[in-house]
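F.,

This is the one I mentioned.
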């Protein structure tokens, strides 16, 4: 577990200074702090981007945005193809759950759940693939080839001309269910060739979570960028001080023994600029208060750079450390639903929030879960196993599982024998100390050989048991692959589309009902 995240969950004193709110805040006080800003936010833009939503919850949220003084519970994520990986959905549902909890707890305030569409990112390799189990229950990968350049922002990417054929191929590879045909008809509408990547993701997410009413916010929208100009101008004007605060906060964090999630680079301005409106390049500091766009860019004064972004506001964007600041500049954010790594790098931003006089929001740990479909549940019960027993090392896990069925009595005797060997080894070492101490290594080697012989015997018996129970081994491999695909948590690998194809919409409600905002352990959800 990430050490900063672990300390945050424990509400350790060592990390309290790095966050604007404790894990369990005084929500009324936090709400008043946001409301007292008396700033204009980008709420009109948020309303405009969500006008077409038909769900009653979404309509209620939009009404609040228009007529009330709302507070935003938000999350965000890179726009993985087909809403991938699964934790994207878990973050969104956590956001909805927290907003609804706060609406019940503080009825005099209005809390609206929002998903921030991270369309500025240019790391295409992190979003262009999705994993599924095919008809043979083998893990399979779906990939969109990169044909548009490595540094093109997602917001400028369009779907390839062969997208329909790719969706057809995917449908043919997946198990056909009662949900397959209507689902893939919708996918062909959402992911039409030539559609923008960000709009396709948004349409799919809106449909997937339609019953939950979560709104989406696209920060790449022209009106949003126009409203963001004062923020980016301030980042340019105060760049030296802001980056220094990132560095000071990070040094303070590491001085307490915590790792830095994001390395602070003194030559970075922590902004990106789209050179010629296409390639996204880092903005570098060039001595004093001057800047360069990319390594070979022309040197610009702060005033020249501000003039450039006023002329082209769509071309400026944030980085991993300035995005949290920008988000709370644009919207009255009271809480952000975050994963472990996010909470770790947010810990590096507190001083910059304070400097810019922007209240740092509360951080809500996102719900973490492994989904257990019925066939996997049946296999687990068959062998008397719990899903949390699965070890990342599949061979070790299978060995232990077979041992529980066949070899436990033998292993208990083996453990007893090892204790006896350890006792005798100590007696022999003590005995020879007064006779010939040079024999001590011989004693150690002899007893080590005995233990090795015992281990070899146990391994041979385990292999024989595996051969006898071929079906058990195959089913254990199936269980392991489903719970820990590629040796990773399922939520980090599988696409949400896999579950929509097999279970329709029911799986989402089952996750939502399992969310407990007061505990933060990994859950196993039966579908």
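My design for it:
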């Amino acid at each position: 577990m990430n050490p900063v995240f672990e300390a945050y969950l424990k509400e350790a004193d060592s990390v309290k200074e790095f966050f604007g709110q404790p894990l369990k805040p005084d929500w009324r006080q936090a709400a008043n702090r946001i409301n007292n800003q008396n700033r204009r936010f980008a709420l009109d833009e948020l309303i405009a981007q969500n006008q077409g939503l038909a769900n009653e919850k979404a309509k209620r949220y939009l009404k609040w945005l228009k007529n009330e003084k709302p507070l935003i519970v938000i999350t965000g994520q890179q726009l993985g193809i087909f809403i991938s990986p699964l934790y994207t959905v878990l973050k969104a549902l956590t956001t909805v759950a927290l907003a609804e909890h706060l609406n019940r707890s503080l009825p005099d305030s209005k809390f609206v759940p929002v998903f921030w569409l991270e369309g500025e990112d240019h790391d295409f390799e992190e979003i262009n693939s999705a994993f599924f189990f095919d008809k043979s229950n083998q893990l399979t990968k779906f990939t969109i080839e990169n044909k548009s350049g490595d540094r093109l922002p997602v917001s400028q990417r369009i779907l390839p001309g062969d997208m329909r054929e790719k969706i057809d191929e995917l449908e043919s590879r997946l198990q056909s269910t009662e949900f397959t045909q209507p689902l893939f008809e919708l996918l062909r509408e959402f992911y039409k060739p030539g559609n923008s990547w960000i709009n396709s993701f948004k349409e799919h997410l809106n449909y997937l979570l339609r019953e939950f009413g979560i709104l989406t916010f696209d920060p790449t929208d022209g009106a949003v960028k126009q409203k963001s100009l004062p923020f980016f101008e301030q980042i340019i004007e105060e760049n030296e001080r802001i980056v220094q605060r990132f560095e000071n906060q990070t040094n303070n964090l590491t001085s307490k023994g915590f790792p830095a999630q994001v390395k602070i680079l003194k030559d970075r301005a922590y902004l990106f600029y789209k050179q010629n409106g296409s390639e996204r390049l880092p903005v570098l500091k060039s001595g004093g208060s001057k800047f360069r766009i990319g390594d070979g860019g022309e040197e610009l004064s702060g005033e020249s750079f501000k003039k450039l972004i006023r002329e082209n506001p769509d071309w400026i964007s944030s980085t991993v450390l300035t995005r949290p600041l920008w988000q709370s500049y644009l919207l009255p954010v009271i809480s952000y639903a975050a994963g472990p790594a996010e909470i770790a790098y947010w810990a590096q931003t507190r001083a910059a929030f304070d400097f810019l006089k922007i209240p740092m929001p509360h951080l809500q740990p996102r719900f973490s879960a492994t989904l257990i479909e019925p066939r996997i549940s049946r296999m687990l019960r068959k062998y008397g196993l719990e899903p949390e027993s699965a070890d990342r090392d599949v061979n070790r896990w299978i060995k232990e599982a077979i041992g529980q069925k066949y070899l436990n009595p033998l292993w208990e005797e083996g453990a007893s024998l090892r204790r006896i060997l350890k006792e005798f080894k100590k007696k022999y070492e003590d005995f020879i100390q007064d006779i010939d101490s040079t024999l001590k290594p011989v004693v150690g080697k002899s007893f080590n050989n005995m233990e090795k012989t015992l281990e070899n015997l146990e391994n041979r018996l385990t292999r024989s048991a595996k051969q006898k129970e071929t079906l058990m081994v195959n089913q254990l491999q199936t269980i392991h692959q489903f719970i820990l695909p590629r040796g990773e948590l399922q939520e980090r690998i599988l696409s949400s589309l896999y579950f929509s194809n097999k279970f329709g919409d029911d799986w989402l409600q089952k996750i939502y009902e399992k969310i407990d905002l007061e505990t933060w352990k990994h859950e196993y959800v039966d579908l």
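Residues 394-433 form the longest helix (40 residues).

Talk soon.
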